Amino acid sequence: MKKKLLSLTILTLFSTSVLAEASYLCVADHISGFHFDEDLQTWKDVTFLPGERFVIKEQPDGAYQVERMDRNGTWTATCSPRTDQTDDSFSCMGGANQFHFNRKELRFTAFRYFGYWNGSTDSLSISIGRCFRE
């Protein structure tokens, strides 16, 4: 009886870990873009401090949820695997943000493009960085 219980416990733990959805933490290494200088009333090139963070969680249906977490709040987007390039990557949009991720290379690019064209003074940026499986 003890052997059956031990076997069942091990099998349950193994099958749960195999079926668990993937989760990643992504951290920006470099962020560049444009920022509106209120004093000079002009746009300037700027390099932002690295460290912008994203959490990626695979959903049971195979889609991915990406959440950016920073001091200005968060944005969340649900993404589907890309069919135009490779099964190892996906792209998504949420609001005025884009996120592109490669599971094989564990690299990402992120774009924040709300501002300037619509008359607002929100900063625009592009981030690149690495991801780590959680």
Please, could you describe this protein's structure?
The protein is mainly beta and 134 residues long. It has a single domain (21-133), classed as Porin, CATH 2.40.160. It is elongated and about 50 Å long. The longest helix is centred in the first third of the chain and has 18 residues, at 2-19. Mean pLDDT is 79; it is low at 4-19. The chain has one helix spanning 2-19, and strands at residues 23-37, 42-48, 53-58, 64-70, 73-81, 89-94, 97-102, 107-112, 124-133.
How do the helices and strands line up, and which of them pair or pack?
Layout: H1 2-19, E1 23-37, E2 42-48, E3 53-58, E4 64-70, E5 73-81, E6 89-94, E7 97-102, E8 107-112, E9 124-133
Antiparallel strand pairs: 1-2, 1-3, 1-9, 3-4, 4-5, 5-6, 6-7, 7-8, 8-9
Brief sketch in words of this structure:
By secondary structure, the protein is mainly beta. The protein has one helix spanning 2-19, and strands spanning 23-37, 42-48, 53-58, 64-70, 73-81, 89-94, 97-102, 107-112, 124-133.
